[in-house]
């Protein structure tokens, strides 16, 4: 605060624009002002008193004193009482400002972010998804009865938000500024991707489903401590965190999506096979969905397959393959295992 602003503050309090609580609080500080005994009850120039108060405050702040001994002189004039109040309130305000440091707000403490004036809280009270646009160009489809807390301006080192409920995130790629989503005991870190986060309040489970890109999911560590459990997810993979057991269980999303949807005739025919070996079919499926598919029996890899799997979900495509080869498949974590007796040549 400048000297000019200080003078304006004194004028404000001379007009009596303060509360009784402020009067009681600041009179303690006014009593610390160094005053000559002969000044009590005398008429003193306002500018002189203002200068002495300002200098006194500066000395106290420079010395970082929390308490200074002094002589308390009864104030005969209400006019000087208001000046003391103004000076005291200014001193308290400067001290509070010096003590408040934004850096003290940890990225791992969602409760503290609520008190920051530059944070916004958006709650979807409707039954339809609510689109929230963030400063960096990222978007969040906020599900019904869900809440997102985010800063109006992201930090230069990272982008951090807090989610309660379910949402679909489409994050702008910024390798130098990773994006963090805090959801209860789980943190999701991304550089640029799209994914779902679903929570189960009753069981305190948090489920992350990746659509594009890669994300790292880890449990909420204590401040300044590294995460003890972390999994990296790629498209069509999911991880569910069980709070009671403090562990992640990985798997595949219920309906895997194509990583690169078909946009031309050539890509439309990529699932049309004519006497193609199973190894080629599997390789095409792996590339299209980003999912690892293992063929348990090597004798199955060379079996020919003629089938049109176009415009079918992955579950149906696998069912058609198994029916044609008299094989079976099962999902083991994030991998699909295909097995069968093979074929006769």
Automatic annotation (TrEMBL):
InterPro entries named among the record's database cross-references: FecR (IPR006860), FecR_C (IPR032508), Ferrdict_sens_TM (IPR012373)
Domain FecR protein: 130-215
Xref: Gene3D superfamilies: 2.60.120.1440, 3.55.50.30
Protein's name in the database: DUF4974 domain-containing protein
A GO term for molecular function: sigma factor antagonist activity
PANTHER family: PERIPLASMIC SIGNAL SENSOR AND SIGMA FACTOR ACTIVATOR FECR-RELATED, PROTEIN FECR
Pfam families membership: FecR (PF04773), FecR_C (PF16344)
Residue span, Protein FecR C-terminal domain: 270-337
């Amino acid at each position: 605060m400048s000297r000019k602003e200080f003078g304006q503050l004194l004028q404000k309090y001379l007009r009596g624009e303060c509360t009784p609580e402020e009067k009681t609080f600041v009179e303690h500080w006014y009593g610390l002002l160094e005053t000559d005994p002969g000044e009590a009850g005398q008429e003193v120039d306002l500018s002189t008193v203002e200068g002495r108060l300002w200098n006194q405050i500066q000395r106290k702040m420079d010395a970082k004193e929390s308490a200074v001994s002094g002589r308390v002189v009864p104030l005969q004039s209400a006019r000087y009482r208001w000046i003391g109040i103004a000076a005291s309130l200014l001193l308290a305000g400067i001290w509070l400002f010096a003590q408040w440091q934004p850096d003290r707000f940890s990225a791992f403490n969602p409760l503290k972010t609520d008190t920051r004036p530059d944070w916004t809280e958006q709650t979807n009270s409707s039954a339809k998804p609510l689109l929230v646009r963030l400063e960096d160009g990222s978007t969040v489809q906020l599900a019904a009865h869900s809440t997102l807390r985010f800063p109006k301006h992201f930090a230069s080192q990272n982008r951090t938000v807090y989610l309660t409920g379910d949402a679909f995130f489409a994050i702008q790629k910024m390798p130098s500024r990773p994006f963090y989503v805090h959801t209860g005991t789980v943190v999701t870190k991304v550089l640029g991707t799209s994914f779902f986060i679903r929570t189960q309040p009753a069981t305190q489970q948090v489920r992350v489903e990746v659509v594009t890109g890669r994300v790292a999911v880890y449990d909420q560590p204590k401040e300044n401590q590294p995460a003890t459990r972390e999994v990296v997810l790629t498209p069509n993979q999911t991880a569910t965190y069980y709070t009671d057991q403090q562990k992640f269980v990985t798997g595949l999303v219920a309906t895997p999506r194509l990583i690169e949807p078909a946009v031309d005739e050539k890509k439309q025919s990529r699932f049309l096979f004519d006497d193609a070996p199973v190894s080629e079919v599997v390789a095409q499926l792996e590339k299209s969905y980003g999912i690892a598919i293992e063929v348990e029996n090597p004798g199955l890899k060379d079996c020919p397959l003629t089938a049109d799997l176009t415009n079918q979900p992955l579950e149906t495509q696998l069912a058609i393959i198994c029916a044609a080869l008299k094989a079976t498949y099962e999902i083991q974590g994030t991998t699909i295992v295909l097995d069968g007796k093979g074929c006769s040549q």
